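seq:
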Amino acid sequence: MQSATNRVEGGPVQSDPTQGGGFSKRISVNTLVYTLLAIVVLALLLVMYLQAPNFFRVNNLINVLVQASIVGILALGLTFVLVGGGIDLSMPATLALSGVLGAMCMRDTNMAIVGPFVMLAIGASIGAFNGYAVAYMKMTPFVVTLATMTVAGGAAVWITGSQSISDYPLEFEDFFVSRILGLPLSVWIFAGCTILASLVLDRTVFGRFIRAIGFNPVAASISRVPVRRVLCLTYVVAGVLAGLTGVLLVARLGSASASLASDSLLLDIISACVIGRVSIYGGVGSPLQAALGAIVVTLISNSLNQLGVSYFASLVIKGTIIVLFVYLDRLVRRSA
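struct:
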């Protein structure tokens, strides 16, 4: 009982560095992982400097940040779910459906302010459904969110008839594509979401509850953590952030359609979390690291594109990266 309480109130129970070498080994493995990642990024930047110097133009670097903001905000939402021991495959489909419905509401009411609220509400509703199915109905997260992904994606195609929606008030785009200090608003929103998510997950009782459930849901329940409610809320957070991403993406593209989220977006989100050392086994992860992972993934994608690497080859590379970092994560957990 005491160890379970410690998990909830003080976070994960770590080995004492003065007793045994588990803690120091884990630090060593983490250091090795980050060193390897830094070497890969530096090598990639060197290749870009030699082969595609246009990569370092200011406009392209800003474009990388804008793309990273889309992947990053979604990765922040997935971080909450993963740390709680779950998985959400429906986030890109939630983004598309919320964007489509929000754009239709703006078109029908001719009011730009309606769109963001509808998109956030749709995202929260889908997240609440996923959370209720997982937490209260005890359904497998992978199966539930896979089904939700299929339903939401199909609904977006059915509602729009595979047509784009663009005849909504231009004030919506004017606001969300505006710039502050030379950077697009989406980049600042991404930064703000990262800071807020980090504070919530690392400095609040809710965040400690999520980590406790991710480590050991049985022990968390014994310690009187409201396991079902907390798990449900992690999916709501993911849904809200998917809706927010829908707002930014519709404004950036100037239209909404069922294909709002690219086919590779889910792979990019998972890659960002895995590279950011968010454990797929639950209990471990940081929003800040996930945000950095999103920047790295976007950097890799942009670099491969400028080097002329085919789309399918880039998928192979990203998939290999996920497998590698999942294996490294397993090594870290074994050494703990």
